[in-house]
Specification:
Low-confidence stretches: none
Distance between the termini: 19 Å
Mean pLDDT: 90
Strand content: 15-25%
Number of helices: 9
Number of strands: 12
Shape: globular
Order of helices and strands: HHEEHEHEEEEEHHEEHHEEH
Length: 308
Amino acid sequence: MPYHSITQGLKADQANMGKCLVDLDSLGLAKINIFHSPPFYAIEHNNPDVKEGGTWQPSNCESLQRVAIIVPYRDREQHLRILLNRLHPMLQKQRIHYRIFVIEQFGNDLFNRGKLMNVGFKEALKVGHFDCFIFHDTDLIPENDKNLYLCDQDARHLSSAIDEMRYHVMYYNYAGGVIAMNQKNFIKINGYSNMYWGWGNEDDDLSARTQEKGLLLTRPPEHIGRFKMVRHTKASRAEHGNELFLGWRGRWYHDGLNGMNYTVIKQTNLKLYTNVTVNLGPSDNHMIDPTKDTTRETLWWFLKFYYP
């Protein structure tokens, strides 16, 4: 959906009695310093109206949507401080009723971003009702306040222009970084795959699911969807990631929100966010042999996905 369609719909909704008015003309680019990570107490001091659990809402109007920000996390405190220092004031400028959930992976297994996103979705719904879910990498910092953290009727890829990618989308079907989806659609696609342990392919799997369910992958224009990436050592790639992705179609109805096992070790309502520390269980890649998956896509399909 074009950005002007989002803003036109926003203005129409704002005409309803009691809905929050967002002055888009007053929003713009912020100066982002990815090398400055203020301490938590300083961020708290600068955001006195944020309530326990990392939640805020406008006091004199009703926000258009109630939004849950889901951040998968492990051993990235510096990145988290930079992100929280940016998100809280930006979301308040956008007059959004929000809560930030940091889903922390326990243990030493490879990082499983997709499964942490699914856990965040399920655990957020135990806390309360949310219309919109923003699945947000901890190392991506939004530059433009006009990039509204709201959901449309499809899947909205908010990080359409990342500095490390020269402010262009990596490829047409790319759905990594920061993506917004409403509750109904995330359930419809069965969430993320749980099978990708390590970096890569879980976002492509999500993109394929959205297409299969007839959802569009919408984006703000590149001058709006600008993000800076906090520099860090790259994580290990998922083992057999491409092979797993080729077999996505045969697994996706039972590989996702359905049939997912995990254990919440603790949940803590901190001032700036809700922390959920979770044991995802052991890596499950050994449960399947991707080379013997009878539902594998063709090489032509694979190439067309990346180069349509």
